Amino acid sequence: MNSISNIWNHPKTSIAGLLIGIVTIASVLSQQGITLGNMGTGTVITLVSGLATALLGLLARDPQSQTSSIGSTARLGVWALIALLLQLPFMSGCSGTTVAQDIVNWTPTLESAVATVDTTAALLAPVDAPIFIAATVGFDAASNLLVVQARAYLANPTSSILAQLQSQVVTFQQQVNAALLSAARIVNAASQQHALNAINAVSTVVNAILALVISISSKAQVAQMAAESTVKLAMVQPYLDEGKAAVIVAGHYDESVEWARAQGRLVELSAVRAGF
Fold it and tell me: CA angle 149-167-183, nearest 5°?
């Protein structure tokens, strides 16, 4: 009954989840070479995926959406588009100043999250603080460099600056993933929770920026980025806080937590399947 009630109370989120599920299943079938036959100049699978993508795009632009303002609706559409583009192997990545601006828009949240990390060591048990400090010592420099490169790309979106941005976001993501693994080894439960909470906030933003960078990268560039990723998302997934990430994303895009949670799951799945 709770499931039926949730569908009734949150129809937009339920429909979006169904469409995302259709796109995900279609992508898996497509990658396995399952087409379900031809239709027109394409296949049944590509047709179903295309229709689901279009409907999800329309849903993101629904005037009845909780994101009532034009700017908020546009941000919702951008995030939904990125999630879909990451998921579909037969579609090319998006480009343009919209994605570049969204990367820059994340930087204040990133800077705030890193600032919180800088003060978290004081909350830990004395024996645990050195472990946390060693794990996160590079966050400030990595954050500053990523912000500079994001703004440089927005001002001058060239392939050379994009290459620098691609390299830096992967480098930072690897630092964050390694820090999560280090924090998970802290024995004191309270210290571990403080450490993971602080690092999770940074992880959410870095992974969001990674998704944005992937969306404007070619398949070859994504493959190169994935090859540089040695600490995979699957290794740190047990230590990621999905609820916290959904709240951060929802706040950034001015949308519902349920919608942000669905987006996060799809983006994470897509990143894992891309080799991250």
Answer: 100
Integer-rounded Cα Rg, in Å, for the chain is: 19
What are the sequence ranges of the domains in the chain? 2-87, 97-240
Residue located via tokens 């990451």: 86
Contacts by 40-49, CB closer than 8 A, 24 or more apart: 46/90, 48/22, 49/22, 49/23, 49/88, 49/90
Residue among 201, 205, 107 nearest 152 (CA)? 107
Give Cβ neighbours of residue 61 (< 8 Å, ≥ 6 apart): 73, 77
Q: Which residue has the higher pLDDT, 33 or 97?
A: 97
Summarised one tens digit per residue, pLDDT across range 198-210 is: 999 999 999 999 9
CATH number of this structure's domain 97-240, picked from the four choices 1.20.120, 1.10.1660, 3.30.1490, 3.30.310: 1.20.120
The upper half-sphere exposure of residue 275, i.e. CA atoms within 13 Å in the direction of its Cβ, equals 14
Q: What is the mean pLDDT of residues 55-82?
A: 49
11 to each of 22, 60, 64, 105, how far by Cα in Å? 16, 13, 11, 29
Q: What is the largest CA-CA distance in the chain?
A: 67
Pinpoint the alpha helices (H) of the chain: 2-9, 11-31, 44-60, 70-87, 97-120, 129-136, 139-155, 159-184, 189-215, 219-227, 233-236, 242-253, 257-273
Report how far residue 234's alpha carbon sits from residue 241's, in angstroms, rounded to the nearest whole number.
13
**DSSP label at residue 63:** T
Between CA 82 and CA 62 the distance in angstroms is 18
User: Quick one: average pLDDT of 64-80?
Assistant: 48
Q: Would the pLDDT of 181 be above 70?
A: yes
What is the distance, to the nearest Å, from the Cα of residue 265 to the centroid of all Cα atoms in its chain?
8
28 strand-pairing partners: none
pTM of the model: 0.70
